[in-house]
Amino acid sequence: MDATDLARWQFAITTVYHFLFVPITIGMSLIVAVFHTAWVRTRKPEWLRLAKFFGKLFLINFALGLVTGIVQEFQFGMNWSDYSRFVGDIFGAPLAVEALLAFFLESTFLGLWIFGWGRLPEKLHASTMWIVHIGTVLSAYFILSANSFMQHPVGYTYNPASGRAELTDFFAVLTNKVQLVTFPHVIFAAYMTGAAVIIGVAVYLMRREAKAAATPDELASGDAPMYRKAARIGAVISLVAAIGVIASGDVQGKIMTEVQPMKMAAAEALYESVPEGVGAPFSVLTIGSLDGSAATPIIEIPGLLSFLATGSFDGAVRGINEIKAEYAQTFGASGNPRVADLATAYVPNIPTTYWSFRLMIGLGIAASIIALAVLWTTRKGRTPTGKWLLYAAVAAPLLPVFANSFGWIFTEVGRQPWIVFGLMTTANGVSPSVSMGEVITSMTVFTLLYGALAVVEIKLFLHYVRKGAEPFEQPQDPADRDEDAPLVFAY
Amino acid sequence: MDLATFWFILLGVLWTGYLVLEGFDFGVGMLLPVLGGKRYAADAEDAEKRRRLLINTIGPVWDGNEVWVLTAGGATFAAFPHWYATLFSGFYLPLLLILVALIVRNLGFEYRHKRPGAVWKARWDQAIFWGSLVPALLWGVALTNIVRGVPIDANMEFTGNLFTLLNPLSLLGGITFVALFLTHGAIFIALKTDGKVRYEARLIAQRVGIVAAVLAVVLLGWIGLTDGKLASWATTVVAAVALLGAIAANRAGREGWAFIGTAVTIAMAVATYFIVLFPNVMPSTTNPAYNLTIENASSTDYTLKVMTIVALIFTPIVLLYQGWTYWVFRKRLTTSVIPDDAPLEPAAR
Predict the structure, then answer these.
(1) Under DSSP, is residue A194 helix (H, G, I), strand (E, B) or coil?
(2) What is the pLDDT of residues A329-346, one digit of tens each?
(3) Comparing C-alpha atoms, which of A269, A346, A404, A460 is closest to residue B115?
(4) Residue A70 and residue B131: Cα distance in Å, rounded?
(5) What's phi and psi for A73, nearest 5 deg?
(6) Could you tell me if A98 and B74 are in contact, meaning their C-beta atoms sit under 8 angstroms apart?
(7) Which residue range forms the structural domain that includes residue B252?
(8) Do residue A433 and residue B159 have CB atoms under 8 angstroms apart?
(9) Which CB contacts under 8 angstroms, 24+ apart, belong to A159-165?
(10) Which end of chain A is more exposed for a tag (fewer CB within 10 A), N or C?
(11) Using 50, 70 and 90 to split pLDDT, how confident is the model at B347?
(12) First to last CA, chain B
């Protein structure tokens, strides 16, 4: 293990950790905004209670997503300075624009939302959460354009005089075809995830309240119906978003096959090319080493890989060996150390890509099954109280959260050995002036700190879940508000 | 003026925005155990209310204030990729410390009040205090090192280590930043609160302000005598006058003017740094030929042009809505608006 490996591990750890919170932030900001607006529109107390309750949970999650995001921006320069030099002309722009357009919006308007109770006119106050949501979506757009450039560089030219890639068309970077499908895929996945948190929390509380009620009247007048409604809203959003995830993911597969064929081959551990008219199968599970020698698929769906890659069940799919030979020819023989990769011969880590691809899909499907089950068992005024709800409450948020992680692990590991596809290998991007000791220090610090913060965050989150929604309190009209009244959402 | 020079100036503006705004956040954080401590608080309950009051003075704005440094970082990356690369990889350990400090501080603001319990709160108080002190000090060390110069080789790589960065001038820079932010933060508290806390904050600003003024004059004088230009001496003089004016205004109970005074001081200190730096962005102490300059460290004209358009459209919008936030929350706070702690545990079932 050398400094490059450590820098990669640190990036992997900090990025996966950061992205545990990001989709929840994107998804929950939308749903809290919906609850808050529903209150302003209908004046039904339950909407205000839900907005405040899920708003608090949202804030607990948001804080950790925010602080771990700062690390990300610094890390490019700290650990990947040669990469930053090489693509800074292109890659820096979306990052700066993200800060200027998105971060300011999110942070400023979240401050207004937290402290705006009874101080801002109600409609304006509800709209601040919508603006926070727009900020999160804009932020996703710009950072995903930056990432899409790494997957499929466009809008640039290589300048031999400066020795770096230089921007020629910013609009092309923002409308990269990889970006145009990645963005909806990530946003829909984020809505699924945010909705799943609502489902998990709401079914837990619905069951608790329903079990505590002695009579049907008590049940109807208690909080169970409110949580039931929240759970159903979460389930509907989750299922609609799931359709978006599948549709965008399908297009993504085809574009990936076109621009990064190795990644598609790595997703299936397909070593030998499958010609037109045969149909490459998709293995759901495999026993074996996945090194191309003795893999034994247990369940195989004929033609599915061809369909994922080309849209036709008997389309041709190129295998790892063929693409590897081509890359060795194009890049390996070019004599350019920036694109030469002797270590892995342009093949990513196949077990990681194979399994992360399956886990992404499998966990996503499982999340949708839970949403469907919740929707079904709560149909027509039913309030289920079965013990399975407890498992569902825990699994609902975790499944999409980990599906997101595996999706990113697949995307990023599948791009290896490239840091920018076809332009620079990851090994070439690392900071030359940073010592092994420094990376060990930072990796240890981040891992321990992040571990401790995860414990704190989860404990605090569960503490607030158990407390449940606060009783309804008629909000004060900002116009005749007593200036000495206590702050509502104060720190 | 070419675009690289424009972006150099704009980075000065972004750093000014960051240090003026987060400067008082850091000051408030550092004053948490002082104004919310035994010396001033009547009892434990009063101390707790005071601490929450202090945090709430910056509650709605600290997060937006911090984005200024993210924008400065992103803008450095976009406009001067080599500056970004050399600086962030070279100042590795100080930046790691700053990151850790900002992480625990920000979580402190958000999590501290979310649970009752003395231990929970005391730990987050520590996080807020150290998380304010450490970045205040280290940004001072880092920025002073940029101006002073650090060992950089022909490949634009930093060749020093942590101890290279801990030289007398940059340490003085760090301590001066701490003193300036303490003054700035105390005046901000005086401006945003009422009652005893307001009065006590003014007293603190009075005492620390003198120290900050002496330190700032020595720091900027030292930098001026080494690399000074006429313009940097002018900004130094304005900084000194503004700080003395702030101290006088604070003494006279004119908190608004005092706050403007410390804000101008910080802005002029940043201006002095950037004027001294120009046209370098990171001078090399190894060989002046290896200096990173606005010329050799910058992005292409096309990138700068795109970024300029984006910045010219959106910076005023950001300033407008951030300014509006300050207007919405312009009201002074007192301990009486701090709500009592929520009941300890969820209702029994």
Answers:
(1) helix
(2) 999 888 888 998 888 889
(3) A460
(4) 14
(5) -65, -35
(6) yes
(7) 3-333
(8) yes
(9) A159/B300, A163/A86, A164/A85, A164/A86, A164/A87, A164/A88, A164/A89, A164/B81, A165/A86, A165/A87, A165/A89, A165/A90, A165/A420, A165/A423
(10) N
(11) very low
(12) 71
The CA distance from B341 to B112, in Å, is 12
pLDDT at res. A476: 76
Instruction: Tell me the pLDDT band of A293, cut-offs 50, 70 and 90.
Output: low
Asked whether the predicted pLDDT for residue A488 surpasses 60, the reply is yes
Instruction: Indicate the pLDDT class of residue A424, thresholds 50, 70 and 90.
Output: very high
Q: Comparing C-alpha atoms, which of A2, A11, A176 is closest to residue A84?
A: A11
In a domain, B311, yes or no: yes
**DSSP helix/strand/coil, A164:** strand
For residues A102 and A132, what is the distance between their CA atoms, to the nearest angstrom? 9
Question: Position A350: which residue type?
Answer: I
Which residue on chain B is closest to A88 by alpha carbon? B81
- B314/A467 touch (CB, cutoff 8 Å), yes or no: no
B253: region left, alpha or beta (phi > 0 left; psi from -120 to 50 alpha): left
Are B87 and B282 contacting, i.e. CB atoms less than 8 angstroms apart? Answer: yes
Question: A136-162, pLDDT tens digit by residue?
Answer: 999 999 999 999 999 999 999 999 999
What backbone torsions phi and psi does residue B152 show, to the nearest 5 degrees? Answer: -135, 135
Residues 6+ away with beta carbon under 8 Å from A267: A353, A354, A357, A410, A414
Residue B337 pLDDT: 79
Neighbouring residues of A489: CB distance < 8 A, sequence distance ≥ 6: A52, A55, A114, A115, A117
pLDDT tens digits for range A349-373: 999 999 999 999 999 999 999 999 9
Check whether A269 has a pLDDT greater than 80.
yes
Instruction: Select from B303, B309, B333 the residue whose CB has the most chain A CBs within 10 Å, as the one to mutate to test that interface.
Output: B303
The amino acid at A106: E
Which residue, chain included where needed, has tokens 């624009």? A97
Partner residue opposite B95 with nearest CB, options A78, A84, A119: A78
Q: Sign (positive/negative) of CA torsion B54, B58, B62, B63?
A: positive
Q: What is the ipTM of this complex?
A: 0.91
Check pLDDT > 60 for residue B189: yes
HSE-CB of A208 using CA atoms within 13 angstroms = 18
Residue A274, classed as helix, strand or coil, is strand
Q: What are the beta bridge partners of residue A166?
A: A157
What chain B residue is nearest to A482 in terms of C-alpha separation?
Answer: B337
A294 pLDDT tier (thresholds 50, 70, 90): low
Task: Return the axis-axis angle of helices B118-148 and B196-227, rounded to nearest 10°.
Answer: 20
Contact A98, A143 (CB under 8 A): yes
Interface test with A, best of B55, B58, B66, B88 (most A CBs within 10 A): B88
Q: Specify if B284 maps to a domain.
A: yes
Taking residues B238-258, what's their average pLDDT? 95
Number of domains in chain B: 1
Look at residue A475 and give its three-state secondary structure.
coil
β-bridge partners, A418: A425
Kindly state the tokens that stand for A293. Answer: 């020698």
A297 forms beta bridges with: A286
Domain residue ranges of chain A, discontinuous segments joined by +: 3-273+318-480
Q: Which of B66, B77, B109 sits opposite A88 (nearest CB)?
A: B77
Res B275 pLDDT > 80: yes
Residue pointed to by tokens 């231990």: B119
C-alpha triplet A238, A243, A249: angle, nearest 5°: 115
- Interchain contact, A490 vs B112, CB within 8 Å: no
Nearest to B180 by CA among B126, B137, B141, B143: B137
CATH number at B263 reads 1.20.1630.10
Q: What does pLDDT average to over chain A?
A: 92
